[in-house]
Amino acid sequence: MSRGKRYDDQPHLNKKKVVAVLLIFVIIVVLIYLLASGTLTKNDTEESITSKDYFASFKDNKWGVIDQKGNDVITPSYAEMIVIPDSKTDVFLCTYDVNYDTGEYKTLALNSKNEQIFTQYDQVEPIQNVDNAQNAWYEKNVLKVKKDGKYGIINLQGKELTEIKYDAIEPIQGIQGVLKVKENEAYGIINDSGTTLVDSKYIDVTNLGKDTVSGFIVEAEDGKYGVVDSSNNVVLEPNYDEIEKVSGNDLYVVKQDDTTKLVKNDGTEVLTSGYDSITGILKSEGAGIIFMKDSKSGVMDLSGNVLIEPNYDSLKETKSGIFIANEDGKYGVIDLEGNTKIDFNYAMISYNEKGDLYVAEDADFNNEIFDNTFTSRQKGILISMNDDKGYMELRQNDDYKYYTYNFEEKQAAEVNPSSTLFLSKNNGKYGFVDKEGNLVVDYIYDDATEQNAFGFAGIKKDGKWGSIDSSGNVVQEPIYNLDDYLQIDFIGRWHYGKDLNMNYYNQLDA
């Protein structure tokens, strides 16, 4: 189903500021008049100033919508989950009258006043995408609409971004804002603004890399494959039996006459033998490839010289000349000379490019964080990494700790300055303090979460979870058993659902 100007010595009148002040004065006068006349109520002004968030809700086997305070916006009354493409926009997409035998169904779109919108279309649907780890998400800026058997896209305000002319529209897996379209039995690519990136004239089109920069693999009418960039230019002529989703430095992995080759964008052959397959092209221009030989991974340069013998189950380059390697089911990090930089002791290792950090995880889900010199800097259970703010949250000895990507410890109040309450621990019990460290919620809980963006925090007592609000008042007594839940989060009395991909809150399992 369907994120210096220099001045003279003498002061001058800033005309722009004067105009701005006058405009503000006029707006204030108009607001006062409207409030006094009853045309505009105080609640209306508060609603216009306060940004709202919306979430799907589930109660009594029915779906609805709540806001960021936990208030019902759409009372749970639908049999199918309501999809909210953008939590900050009141566009709610409902599916009903589903026939599971034929696959037929009906759709409607509602706003926060429970009014039906976009009624000029036969169907209005979200566009769901998934990444390589099968994590699901929705395109935030566009909706797919159907009318008279044809499809198009609109934005969340209802503006048509394309003509309603396509036979099909679907996402390109893992790439946000890029859509595959079918028109007159041929495929092309558009973006979420409705701009054509690749003309609809190919038997098939798919992504080459993880973004539009890498271009797209196209299949011509004769069944041969080539590469077209996002400006509709042919980069690699469609002369090949296959093109692998591996590229970089104007090099492409192709298959021709049953031979896997590395070619330049003009078709010049660079490598044709010495491997069974090519799984990666090194980041430094002219450096080489990651190859497979007899089911093992190694590295060779563009002259065919082996730099790392194929002794590893897998190799993934993180930055120039550094690789996460898998050997006998254990992960470590090596360099281009084959030197071990992080020992092979881990069930998994990932690389955070923004922080230039390595996150290792053992079989018990404990984490160890290494800096760019491969020095172990912190241990614990990694809760989150915030690339925008440049910090990580770790659980260490049952305490929650915050560190910058430079491993400087930060207090919760520094990381979340808008919060009113902060988790604190004393004698093995959890409570909450304010920004000055004054106790607000007594140390009576067995576990708890930090306050979320909406002012709520989870509290655990006697094995059950509940919630408090931004003032420390208990909103939901601890009655929920959430042992099987991967994420503990509350909005009012609603707790986050078990399936993280669905992004909903419920009031079940009490």
Task: Report what the structure shows.
By secondary structure, the protein is mainly beta. It is 7% helix and 49% strand. A seven-stranded antiparallel sheet has the order 32-33-34-35-36-37-38. A six-stranded mixed sheet has the order 3-2-1-48-47-46, with no helix packed on it. The longest helix is centred in the N-terminal third of the chain and has 23 residues. The chain is flat, with a radius of gyration of 28 Å. The two termini are 30 Å apart.
Brief overview:
The chain has 510 residues and is mainly β.
Estimated share of beta-strand residues: over 45%
User: What is the approximate shape?
Assistant: flat
Biggest sheet: strand arrangement: 32-33-34-35-36-37-38
Number of strands: 48
Average predicted local confidence, pLDDT: 90
Helix content: under 10%
Span between N and C termini? 30 Å
**Could you name the ranges where pLDDT drops below 50 across 5 or more consecutive residues?**
1-49
Main sheet?
Answer: 7 strands, antiparallel
Structural class: mainly beta
Using only C-alpha atoms, the radius of gyration works out to 28 Å
Number of helices: 3
Summarize the SSE layout with pairings.
Elements: H1 15-37, H2 42-49, E1 54-59, E2 62-67, E3 72-78, E4 92-99, E5 104-110, E6 116-117, E7 123-125, E8 128-130, E9 136-138, E10 142-147, E11 150-155, E12 168-171, E13 178-183, E14 186-191, E15 196-202, E16 204-207, E17 216-219, E18 225-228, E19 234-240, E20 242-248, E21 251-256, E22 259-264, E23 269-271, E24 277-281, E25 289-293, E26 296-300, E27 306-312, E28 314-319, E29 322-327, E30 330-335, E31 340-346, E32 348-352, E33 357-361, E34 367-370, E35 376-386, E36 391-396, E37 399-404, E38 409-410, H3 412-415, E39 422-426, E40 429-433, E41 439-445, E42 447-448, E43 457-461, E44 464-468, E45 474-480, E46 490-491, E47 494-496, E48 504-506
Parallel strand pairs: 1-48
Antiparallel strand pairs: 1-2, 2-3, 4-5, 5-6, 7-10, 8-9, 10-11, 12-13, 13-14, 14-15, 16-17, 17-18, 18-19, 20-21, 21-22, 22-23, 24-25, 25-26, 26-27, 28-29, 29-30, 30-31, 32-33, 33-34, 34-35, 35-36, 36-37, 37-38, 39-40, 40-41, 42-43, 43-44, 44-45, 46-47, 47-48
